[in-house]
Design brief:
4-stranded antiparallel β-sheet; globular; alpha+beta
């Protein structure tokens, strides 16, 4: 289910999926940040972080990832 995660506002379509780890409780889960454009393009795993390490990505990090997504799309569709 590539569209399972929540869209992250202002990122050009990046999604954040909350994933619990067995036996770790709510705070022991991880956040999986990925980009999925369509079935014509691969799904890209961008970063993973533990929920107990941080709550979210900073605005600067989101902007950097949005730029990376723009580059990935450009490279993919120009090939």
């Amino acid at each position: 289910r590539p569209k399972a995660g929540d869209l992250m506002e202002g990122t050009g379509g990046i999604r954040k999926l909350r994933w619990g780890r067995e036996g770790r409780g709510k705070s022991g889960g991880v956040r999986v940040v990925y980009y999925f454009h369509s079935d014509d393009m691969p799904l890209y795993l961008l970063t993973v972080f533990a929920k107990n390490e941080r709550a979210n990505l900073s605005k600067g990090e989101r902007n950097e990832l949005a730029g990376l997504v723009d580059l990935l799309k450009q490279i993919w569709f120009e090939r």
